[in-house]
Amino acid sequence: MSITHAWRAFRGVLGRELKRFVRQRERFIAALVRPLVWLVIFAAGFRAALGLSIIEPYETYITYEIYVVPGLIGMIQLFNGMQSSLSMVYDQEMGSMRVLLTAPLPRWFLLLSKLAAGVVVSLLQIAAFLVFVALMQVDIPFNKLWLALPAMILSGFMLGALGLLISSVIKQLENFAGVMNFVIFPMFFLSSALYPIWKMQESSDILAMLCTLNPFTHAIELIRFAIYGQFNGIATLVVLGCTAVFFLLANWSYNPARRFRASRTAVR
Amino acid sequence: MTQQPQEPDAVNTLSVDSVSFSFGVKAALNQVTFSVQPGETVFLLGPNGAGKSTLFSLISGLYKPTSGTVSVSDANAGTPKALSQLGIVFQSDTLDPDLSIADNLHYYAALHGLSTKIAHERIAACIAPFELSERLKEKVRTLNGGHRRRVDIARALMHQPRLLLLDEPTVGLDIPTRSALTQRLQSLASTLNCAVLWATHLADEVRDSDRIVLLHEGSIHGDANATKLMQSFQSRSVEEMMNAVMLQTTAINE
User: Which residues in chain B touch residue A102, judged by CB atoms under 8 angstroms apart?
Assistant: First the structure.
């Protein structure tokens, strides 16, 4: 594989994802409205009900809106990862996945390109969301946000790799409702996205433990610390490790022979 | 039954050697052996369920054979080297309906490592014979089946492959469109500087002088030009010959 060929192919995959994203306006609006609903409506209600004490990385008491922003960034990436996964299952059903998998490049590189393109799309969604956060005058350190970019890229890769893994297991679009129920919702609600883990511990030790074990919690904490220019070593290791495991499993599981075997359309 | 002698040949564009493949316990291909020489056009003829698409999936590396080997210009099937020499027209639609014709072609060109400049040139050259040059900016979703097939074929030729795989390229088209596309493809195959393996279950797509690999129920029942094959099956037409093969196989199975 020459570097020039690899670069051109990546640019092609990225360009296709961006064009599809731009043309699917509903997807963009949904990606933006979802976290904004949480920020504008839920945060208003939770602000009164949920008292937050000083926790790392914050140096003082914060409002709920400030607390929830990293969680909503994670939410954007979680849903984007699942959307990419859904679009890969769609590509398989429609046949365009065959064009990608018969390109003269190693399969791992093609999957990695798909993954990286999905991360770029998620960063664009986050940028649009942060514009609204700024307009709402939520007091986060906007001047340090660039420090959180590597964290967002890393968390985007982890959640995208999870989506890739799911798309390699899911055979039909119809089965995707199960992913919402059994992956997205538990991952999101059993995390530190909406409330700190110590709050959860007041209700249940088991649920708090599940939150701690959830890789999505670590993705959010990685972003939360990075926004304040702090490095969270454990979160970084967990996110890196999970990214590697999810991607390797997806690459292994993405055996076209195994996948297409289930489809009678390929067998004539 | 006529079988061409299969000599190992380093210059074969395609070599399929004793290939078997099964879906779980169901055998799909059984000891299939044939080769395609550079520049040659070969029809892979067989009824639905014969194993044609399975064989194409093995050649394009989407499946791995249970036993035997498939190589494209001496490179193992499915490797980047082999894939770079293949142009594939899949039986099912593989264009992105939400993108324009040009976007679909540029995407393919990028996957094959073509620069933007070369991609522009190749798109213009490959789409022109199919009379779609004026419609490059239209979304694929707006094209009819026949036009989508033309884009599929133009796309498969963009990286100048050594072997063009056509998997039932006319399936699903109405009779006039099918007939026009068949003629266009036959004329294209004779002018292209690459070998063509054309899978079909439609006997009228084959001319008497064409080489046929006759596939049924996963096994090759003949490999020769149409006239010779018809003689060996004592048939007056390719269609009659196909019926004879199917009857013969049914009788053996019973």
Answer: 60-62, 83, 86, 88
Specify the pLDDT at position A48: 67
* Residue (of A176, A204, A175, A177) closest to A190 by Cα position: A204
Q: Write the pLDDT tens digit of every residue in B167-185.
A: 988 887 888 888 888 888 8
Contact B94 A95 (CB under 8 A): yes
Quick one: what percent of chain A has pLDDT higher than 90?
Answer: 41
Average pLDDT on B105-129 reads: 93
pLDDT given at position B64 = 87
Answer yes or no: is pLDDT of B39 > 90. no
Per-residue pLDDT tens over the stretch B198-208: 999 888 888 87
Residues of chain A positioned with their CB less than 8 A from the CB of B98: 20, 23-24
Contacts of A12 in chain B (CB under 8 A): 106-111
Question: Contact A11/B81, CB-based, under 8 Å?
Answer: no
Q: What is the DSSP letter of A171?
A: -
Q: For chain B, which domains are there?
A: 1-85+163-254 (3.40.50.300), 97-160 (no CATH)
Q: Is the pLDDT of residue A112 over 80?
A: yes
